[in-house]
Amino acid sequence: MTAYLIRNVRVLDGEPTDLLIRDGVVAGAGAGLTADDATVLDATGLVALPGLVDLHTHLREPGREDAETVESGSRAAALGGYTAVCAMANTSPVADTAGVVEQVWRLGREAGLVDVQPIGAVTVGLAGERLAELGAMADSAARVRIFSDDGHCVADPRLMRRALEYVKAFDGVIAQHAEEPRLTEGAQMHEGEVSTRLGLTGWPAVAEEAIIARDVLLAEHVGSRLHVCHVSTAGSVEVLRQAKARGVRVTAEVTPHHLLLTDDRAETYDPVFKVNPPLRTAADVAALRAALAEGVIDIIATDHAPHAVEDKECEWAYARPGMLGLETALSIALDVFGPRWDLIAERMSRTPARIAGLTGHGLDPAPGVPANLTLVDPAARRVIEPAELASRSRNTPYARMTLPGRIVATFLRGEPTVLDGKAVK
Ligand SMILES: NC(=O)N[C@@H](CC(=O)O)C(=O)O
């Protein structure tokens, strides 16, 4: 195993220092370190962050390897500064058995670019009718702790209650895609002034808020853990704020795109902007930013949703919802919050690692901790070119935008997965 001596790096907001990485851990920190056997990296101007952790990634394997594979998604993640991702269950077949989650987990290990932690489905086939084998997935080699029907809401309150009760035994968490399906039938975008003008069927904010309100009450009743996926409205923030004030065990995520983009993008009729939940209003964006800074929303999660060209480059109504996120998330966080490194580390690494129970991740680079870290050049600016992304898909909403920040290197347990801004394998 090669040792690395990273010179002149700032760990978060600290003064420039040196970090020695050896045998998978941070072996030393301090100005003027020496190590004859180490490869020296000059990191002047760079910032070291704990490796990012994504709680919400669609890797598409098994089933849609044309859109993404565990390997291509892992590479995209490493290039985005991630050292761990949680893979959503809406694959084909659905990750609703020990066999499928073990397959995804094994593929992640083989790719070896990030730790891939499978998420298990809550219900068989994501059909919302019967609970999946949650216990078997928890006991499998993949040790599943997060369960989600993401892409679908667990709409039946009785099933949701039983799922929350079931996972309590092993401190699992139900990650809910909050969407009351009866309120979003045929929906194409956020319900509001723009949808009225364009004549597109709207997805009202209350469809999200009603499910979150119900679920925090269920989680409180059961005393179990709830995680709310991709929160998108100001009203949802208020429901979460009240629930947290009462001590409900609820955590929540917001995506980079909901922190930046608004529903008027639909005026282009470019389906790259079609996503679930939909892009909302400027007032929602402002509320989400404030909630994330405050901690009412706990984390940024990408909802990286790769789609093949034929599923995206078609009429708006026929296009699949979802957009890429892994390779641009840190840049969006920098764009929105500036170089608030402690906030970024907390919301994109430490807290998601804690929610997912990923020990060894989410730890600030310091002597003795596993060397899962990323080096960022905050002064760099880059133009996003879809063809240059490592993802197999091209559906980034940031095409040709200039974004701040560049990931220069990423280390997974002391081995570089990215060096000089390029994937190592
Ligand atoms: N977020 C998205 O717009 N799409 C997700 C699933 C979903 O939540 O609909 C996908 O898997 O593509």
Summarize this structure as a short list of keywords or feature phrases.
single chain; 425 residues; alpha/beta; Urease, subunit C, domain 1; TIM Barrel; 2 domains; five-stranded parallel beta sheet; globular
Description:
Its cofactor is Zn(2+). Zn(2+) 1 binds at residues 56, 58, 150, 303. InterPro entries: DHOase (IPR004722), DHOase/Allantoinase_Hydrolase (IPR050138), DHOase_cat (IPR024403), Dihydroorotase_CS (IPR002195), Metal-dep_hydrolase_composite (IPR011059), Metal_Hydrolase (IPR032466). It comes from Micromonospora sediminicola. One of its GO terms (cellular component) is cytoplasm. This protein is of the alpha/beta class and 425 residues long. The chain folds into two domains: 3-48 and 367-423, Urease, subunit C, domain 1 (Roll); 51-356, TIM Barrel. Helices cover 29% and strands 23% of the residues. The chain contains twelve helices and 19 strands. The strands form four sheets. Strands 1, 2, 3, 4, 5, 16, 17, 18 and 19 form a nine-stranded mixed beta sheet that branches. β17 and β18 (415-419) form a beta hairpin. α4 crosses α6 (205-222). The longest helix is centred in the middle third of the chain and has 18 residues, at 205-222. The structure holds N-carbamoyl-L-aspartate.
